[in-house]
Structure to design on (344 residues):
């Protein structure tokens, strides 16, 4: 006869086995310092020995919290978002919070399905970089389900009731333009990004203003808008690099677009860092390993992820009554893709 699986162990059984109260067991399992360290270690060892797993559903009935947070990315395969996720999970781990992940791929419907799933689990919050054209009504529905929302890198301009953590996109573009011009590039273009997100809107406006301050005229074709990946950027740049014999400076949406720009430059028979200067925004640590290495204006992805998780933990603990807008300062990382033309 096939053996039936044993019922999973309970806190009551562990308490009886150790001769402790149920309250002591509960506190020890949460590593509460009210319980002596030796007792906590004894309880936690008993938990491992018996295979005890905390029942989150039961805990949520007692605390009103599920300890579940959703995180929704545009592209989980991109190293920048991967580094963010590692920092987010590491920060939440200390509080026992479980992270559920959605790769929305710039699809509002995917994000909507994910928020519906979070609602069924009674999730506490959502960290999101919303797709283009996300309606405010979707975020309002999330909050009606009792979830806090935190925007990172992107936000909905009409939503003033959620926290935001990101970088100063205007300053990042200014730094990129200044470095290109200091290196001798005056024919400048912004490459990558699509209309409909706060990031693209801020960067385009910042680029226009930076050109105006430099006395460079604006034409609509100075922004080559395209999906922020290497393939589309390479295709968008083919025609551009055929049009100009003078040195061209490119401000790239991210390191993937920067890699596409390197490929397009080489395909056109031009030299990166001499004929074409390239500065990427929001790169990853791996970008310095490209050949040639990318010059970047960036904030460490891990810093954004950690700041976002800690901001949300403060919100869930109700220690931050007003919505926060945290903007991290970018820094210039010099690589080989934008050298001084005097030295080239």
């Amino acid at each position: 006869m096939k053996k039936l699986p044993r019922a999973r162990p309970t806190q009551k059984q562990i308490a009886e086995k150790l001769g402790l109260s149920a309250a002591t067991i509960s506190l020890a399992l949460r590593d509460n310092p009210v319980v002596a360290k030796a007792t906590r270690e004894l309880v936690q060892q008993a938990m491992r020995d018996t295979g005890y797993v905390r029942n989150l559903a039961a805990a949520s009935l007692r605390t009103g919290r599920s300890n579940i947070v959703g995180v929704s990315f545009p592209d989980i395969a991109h190293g920048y978002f991967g580094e963010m996720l590692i920092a987010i999970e590491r920060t939440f781990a200390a509080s026992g919070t479980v992270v559920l992940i959605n790769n929305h791929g710039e699809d509002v419907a995917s994000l909507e399905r994910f928020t519906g799933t979070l609602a069924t689990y009674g999730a506490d919050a959502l960290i999101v970089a919303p797709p283009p054209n996300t309606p405010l009504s979707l975020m309002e529905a999330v909050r009606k389900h009792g979830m806090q929302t935190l925007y990172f890198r992107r936000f909905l301009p009409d939503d003033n009731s959620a926290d935001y953590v990101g970088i100063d996109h205007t300053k990042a573009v200014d730094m990129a333009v200044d470095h290109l011009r200091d290196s001798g590039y005056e024919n400048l273009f912004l490459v990558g990004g699509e209309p409909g997100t706060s990031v693209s809107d801020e960067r385009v406006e910042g680029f226009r203003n930076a050109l105006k301050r430099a006395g460079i005229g604006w034409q609509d074709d100075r922004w080559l808008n395209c999906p922020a990946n290497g393939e589309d950027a390479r295709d968008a740049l083919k025609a551009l690099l055929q049009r100009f014999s003078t040195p061209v400076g490119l401000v790239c949406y991210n390191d993937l677009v920067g890699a596409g720009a390197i490929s397009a430059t080489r395909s056109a028979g031009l030299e990166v860092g001499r004929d074409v200067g390239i500065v990427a925004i929001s790169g990853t640590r791996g970008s310095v390993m490209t050949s040639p290495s990318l010059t970047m204006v960036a904030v460490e992805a891990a810093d954004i992820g950690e700041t976002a998780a800690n901001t949300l933990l403060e919100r869930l603990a109700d220690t931050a009554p007003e919505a926060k807008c945290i903007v991290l300062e970018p820094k210039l990382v010099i690589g080989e893709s934008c050298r001084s033309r005097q030295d080239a």
